[in-house]
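In line with agreed milestones, the collection of sequences with tokenised folds has grown. One record among many is set out beneath this paragraph:
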Amino acid sequence: MLMEAVLLGAVVGWLRRGKIRQLADLNLPGWPLALLALAIQLAIMIDFNLGRSFLAPAAPYLHVISYAPLLGFVYLNRSHRGMILVGLGLLLNLIVIAANKGFMPVNSALLTPTMREALLSGTGSPMHMALTDESILPLLCDQIPIPYRIDKVISIGDILLGAGIAVFIQHHMVFQATGERRQ
């Protein structure tokens, strides 16, 4: 979903006669916070995919903790167009993940049989679990199918996050750091 948001933002920015190079001029305070969050989630995934169990006991906690630097980064950059949507999407995802003990529940009925089996057996992802009657806040869980991707379902938080990223990118492709429209 994030790649689609980046692509959508870039296409809309280009259609509005913006330039990708405008993004290179951005000064985003706290950017190492976003890298820290990425590193935490990447470490969880690498540990899981290599079949190691070093991080497995702490993975749900690390998953929740990884949202703190992301939200800090968003807060520091809240004046940028689209960042409030990004923050709201992250917050909704954090709430449902924290409520479900560090896992994002996924509606397995919407997955392909192979992906459903991987999710149900615990071999699909260290950060997701099957949506059940015991899942908390099911409205915020991953249960919105993407029509062009039969292997993916997303949450309301993911939609807001993606919309914020698209708005952010297209806006900064068109407008300079001073807020003036690029000539």
In short: The first strand starts at residue 104 and ends at 106.
